[in-house]
């Protein structure tokens, strides 16, 4: 498992060095580690990238052959919900976020979704809120994803008898994993999307088929293994270090 | 005369001894700066290496040569020491961002037979460097009076699109304008006045500017090039921001920018100065459909001609393409040739 995970990462690194302007420049001229791509050039922070350094450079994250430039802050939501909450057909996923531009695109088949701006629950989003209420009345499952405060606002706007039926899934930034949370939660980052979720074991599990995590001198760095464009490799986010869950045998981030 | 030749890969090899002296002696443009060549090569699909021919210790000739391969959407592999590579490669003797100038430069003292001999030594060095996979060598943008140094049995020579040259024949810009058609003259003056009075347009020009994001400039140049549709045979890669970051801060490079009231970059031009042959190098503009403005192109030419006459340079060149428009601005055609050398003829007379 660990070997295969690492091989996938090495493939992304090699392909990014060969085809993506941003990483070509960074690693050819400065360098990187684990692996080095130009012998002897080790770079800064092992070649990892601060998210701020990507501002205004999204065009350079597109491979030479071309590709999309859109950043999806909800990328990976579907697979992580399916893995940790067994979200299945008939569920409504309600994303509560003041900034969410569009609904999630990678939910399992048959799962519906909606997007709510918490400040507009009595205004432009009243209709969407009604939809959520109907769902709960029918006894269907509603999974609400958002920041703690945003989820509180949603709960306050719902009829008291229904609010507690919502499955709360608070979203945590990678630098905010130490605070207590539970039983469900997601790790999400504005550029990288959803990186993992809280396992039944209480550990922060990485969505390892899609995300690689590596320790660097500047902290943990995340790589999207399946997003061809815009390519995101070794992006520094939050604190903590990579580890393995003894119960599940899969990668986690330890706060 | 004993000539020897070597290939220097700017990504891996140090600057050749005597390189600064040679570039000064031959008055080479800024793109021959070894540090810039290094940045350019790392960011290339077909990286340029530098061929250096010496007579004894002294550099007698040099050439920029792109080692090309069929795959388009990939940067070149990092340099290795492994030899005898069989993968197919061909060599384009070409200066990536100075397409109207030959990429072979001879020391002024090297003449006739010496030049032919230097070219053959260079070719043998390319063959050693590339290995048995070398398919041939193409010399691009060769001036007519240089062709004879490269021709020979099996070699083919043909004429390409010419480059455009404006010889400096006037004491001031009015002299230049007076020589144009009445229509062109009035329109250039009208555009210049309009641009001058437009409060929503910010025009800035300056040498060695560091106030502009080089990645923003690169993005505009690359989208402009993509829109024009690059021929499949173009061996160049996209302009790299990291290259421009070094290039634009040079004192012999002038950057001209046009911005909208909201700061959107509408058009850019780089002017590459030179003691005799100044280059109107990059021109890129946002299309009108995306908020671009018409006629900034002519304003740019006016500003470049202004430098030509005020600095007393001998000529302003403006590359290939759009010859009709350039002719209306007084530019003339300068013949360029390609000499193609198939593998069996490489290094032979
Ligand atoms: Zn676990």
TrEMBL record, chain A:
This is Uncharacterized protein. It comes from Actinokineospora fastidiosa.
From TrEMBL, chain B:
It holds the Pfam family Acetyltransf_6. Residues 183-324 form the BioF2-like acetyltransferase domain. InterPro entries: Acyl_CoA_acyltransferase, BioF2-like_GNAT_dom. This is BioF2-like acetyltransferase domain-containing protein. It comes from Actinokineospora fastidiosa. The lineage of its organism: Bacteria, Bacillati, Actinomycetota, Actinomycetes, Pseudonocardiales.
């Amino acid at each position: 498992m660990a070997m295969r995970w690492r091989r996938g990462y090495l493939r992304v690194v090699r392909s990014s060095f060969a085809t993506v302007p941003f990483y070509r420049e960074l690693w050819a001229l400065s360098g990187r580690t684990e692996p080095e791509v130009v012998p002897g050039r080790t770079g800064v922070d092992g070649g990892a990238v601060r998210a701020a350094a990507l501002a205004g450079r999204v065009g350079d994250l597109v491979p030479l052959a071309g590709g999309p430039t859109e950043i999806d802050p909800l990328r990976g939501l579907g697979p992580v919900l399916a893995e940790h909450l067994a979200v299945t057909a008939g569920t409504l996923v309600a994303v509560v976020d003041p900034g969410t531009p569009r609904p999630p695109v990678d939910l399992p088949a048959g799962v519906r979704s909606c997007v709510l701006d918490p400040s507009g629950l009595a205004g432009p989003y009243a209709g969407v809120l009604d939809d959520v209420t109907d769902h709960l009345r029918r006894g269907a499952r509603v999974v609400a994803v958002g920041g703690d405060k945003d989820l509180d606002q949603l709960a306050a706007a719902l009829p008291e008898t229904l609010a507690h039926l919502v499955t709360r899934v608070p979203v945590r930034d990678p630098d905010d994993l130490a605070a207590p949370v539970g039983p469900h939660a997601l790790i999400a980052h504005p550029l990288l999307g959803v990186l993992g979720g809280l396992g039944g074991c209480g550990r922060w599990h990485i969505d390892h088929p899609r995300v690689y995590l590596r320790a660097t001198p500047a902290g943990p760095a995340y790589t999207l293994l399946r997003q061809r464009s815009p390519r995101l490799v070794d992006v520094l986010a939050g604190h903590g270090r990579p580890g393995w869950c003894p119960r599940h045998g899969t990668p986690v981030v330890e706060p | 005369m004993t000539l020897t030749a070597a290939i220097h890969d700017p990504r891996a090899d140090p600057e050749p001894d005597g390189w600064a002296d040679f570039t000064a002696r031959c008055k080479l443009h800024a793109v021959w700066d070894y540090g810039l060549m290094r940045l350019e090569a790392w960011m290339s699909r077909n990286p340029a290496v530098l061929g250096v021919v010496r007579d004894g210790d002294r550099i007698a000739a040099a050439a920029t040569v792109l080692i090309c391969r069929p795959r388009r959407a990939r940067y070149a592999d990092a340099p290795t020491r492994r030899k005898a590579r069989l993968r197919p490669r061909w060599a384009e003797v070409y200066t990536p961002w100075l397409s109207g100038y030959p990429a072979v430069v001879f020391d002024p003292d090297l003449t006739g037979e010496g030049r032919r001999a230097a070219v053959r030594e260079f070719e043998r060095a390319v063959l050693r460097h590339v290995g048995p996979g070398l398919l041939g060598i193409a010399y691009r943008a060769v001036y007519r009076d240089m062709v004879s140094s490269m021709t020979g049995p099996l070699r083919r020579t043909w004429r390409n699109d010419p480059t455009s040259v404006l010889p400096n024949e006037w004491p001031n810009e009015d002299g230049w304008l007076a020589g144009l058609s009445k229509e062109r003259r009035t329109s250039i003056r009208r555009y210049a006045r309009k641009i001058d009075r437009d409060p929503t347009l910010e025009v800035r020009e300056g040498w060695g500017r560091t106030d502009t994001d080089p990645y923003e400039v690169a993005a505009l140049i690359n989208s402009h090039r993509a829109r024009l549709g690059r021929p499949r045979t173009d061996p160049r890669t996209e302009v790299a921001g990291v290259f421009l970051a070094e290039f634009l801060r040079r004192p012999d490079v002038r950057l001209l920018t046009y911005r909208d009231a909201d700061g959107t970059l509408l058009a850019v031009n780089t002017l590459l100065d030179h003691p005799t042959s100044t280059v109107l190098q990059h021109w890129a503009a946002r299309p009108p459909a995306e908020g671009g403005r018409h006629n900034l192109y002519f304003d740019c030419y006016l500003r470049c001609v202004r430098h030509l006459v005020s600095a007393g340079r001998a000529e302003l060149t403006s590359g290939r393409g759009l010859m009709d428009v350039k002719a209306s601005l007084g530019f003339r055609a300068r013949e360029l040739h390609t000499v193609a050398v198939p593998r069996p003829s490489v290094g032979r007379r």
